[in-house]
Predict the structure.
Amino acid sequence: MSSNWGNRGYNTSVNNYKSSFDILREQRLAAQNQSTPSAGRETPSGFYDHTPSPLERSRYEVLHNPISMAVQSGIEEPPYYTRAPPTPAVRPQLDLMTRDDLYNECAKLRWSFDNAQELRERSEQGRIYYRDLVAKYQAEKDLLNSRLQSAIEAKSRAEEETGNYRRSCESLRNQLNDLEEEFRRAKLDLDRAHADLRGQFLLEGEQGGAQVVVGRMKEDLREKDACIVDLSRQNSELEAELERLRNALSPADQAAQPPASLSEYPRSTYDNDPLARQRLEDELQAAREELDQLRNTLDDERTAAERELQHARSESSQMGHKELENALRNSDALQETIDQLAAELAKRAPVSLSDWEDYQQKYSDLLQKNKQSESTVRQLERQLENGPTPNEEELAINENKDQLIQTYSEEVELRAKKEEALHQELETVSAQLQQSTKEQERLARVQKNRIVELEISEKDLKEANKKLEEEIAEKENALVDAAAATKRLGQELDASEQEKRDLEEQLRELQKQSSDDQKADEEIRRLQAALDELADRVGDEDIDELQQQLDERTAELEAEVARNRDLAANGRTLEAEIVELNSQVAALESRLAAKETEVGVSSQQSEAAVVGLEQELANAAEAVERISQALDASEQEKRDLEAQLRELQKQSSNNQKGC
């Protein structure tokens, strides 16, 4: 019954029309007959027609009806089919379809419409996702632009800091040169101070030599004073003895005149006593040798002092130090005093030696005369006891004794005056030496204070050098930080390049997706045509419902097409944004190149800033990669939808074949 209903009214049109689907069906049936022959009948056209049995029909429905498969398998939605649809257009074979087949076909169409609704919702979600993704990309692009601007500003600041660092380094270098110059001056002052101390030590050595000479002179004077005291004592004794003898002489003897000079005195004692004469000559020779040694010592000390003074004058001419000149002037004054004293000593030494010889001679004569007087006194005593008269020699001695004593007293007083004048002169020289010693001590204190000041200055110089090194280290750290910032800028630039490449790839994907949307439009139009043809063959009671479903599906598909067009428009907008971003990147590269050209020596800072920018752009590239992955997922969903549409078409064609 169902077969008669299915073949009623359509046999003529079906038999007179052979579509590509009929050809494929006949080929498939021929292949089945060759492999597994089964019962069937041959059509008037000569093709083998196989009418399925109820078992085959149920098996066919189980295998090819998504609704029955979903019900039997217990799942809510039919699975997605990925098999490709047949290449030629499918024309439904309504003459093979029963009412149940039509209801099943309508159910499949309803499911397809539901699936299309779900696909529309998913497409809406995808559109919202793409819109959010574009907004996110725009925000990320704005963030990248802001970061790029910040990187450019950081690079400008780095260039400014580099200029400031260069100027500060130049200032520090000038300060270092000034400190080095001050250090050299301080070192020269220290060398001069050491030279002053050396000259002072030499001068103190000269003063020490002069003090030794003066000490020796003082010792000689003390010895001479002792001799004078001894001679004075002996003279007093002789005077007392002579007074006693004078009192013992007769008036005639006292009236006799003494000889006019000492040469008139007889020297029979020296002639008769060679040992005494030899002893006197030895004493005179020792005195001469000591005087010669003193002269040689004074000459050597004078020569050494002149040599040291010449050396000090040469150093003073080289250094030109004021305090050293003062010390040398004091040394010259002291040397003049020493020279005067030496000249006085040299001038007085022969006179003193002559006086000493005369004094020794006179003293010897007096001793001899004393002995003669004693012998004369003893003779006179013996004569007085015995009664003889004195001879002429004794009378002459007694007569000249008073005159001799007076002459000797005058000579002793003159010698005492000379010794006193020499003592006063030595005291004056000692006072001058003490004053010069005080002046040298003052100069030593001044030099010591100067050395302390130089040490303090050297310490301050070391501290200043240390601070300068710390400042240089800080500037180097700042330069390293600026280089790191330049490196970050380079990284951000590389990331921007990567983002540009990713956006270009995304643009190509969107263009490809647009072409796929065009194919989907063609497929929808083809499906619409098939549905229109199917609607012509459906019963009147289902036409309105199918038409309504078809209109809904058509509206949904048109909305999907509109959304796809919106996506294409968004893709074109994204392409324009990519072009704009490329122009911005090109401008950024040009500005970066100009900045790098201007900076020059701050290339390390620029590299660090570029590295930071590359890092930021790498992050943006990762975001674009995520966008690309989302686009790939959307593309996969689109392909799945297309596969579902193809599967629906194939199911429809299979249902038509089954009917």
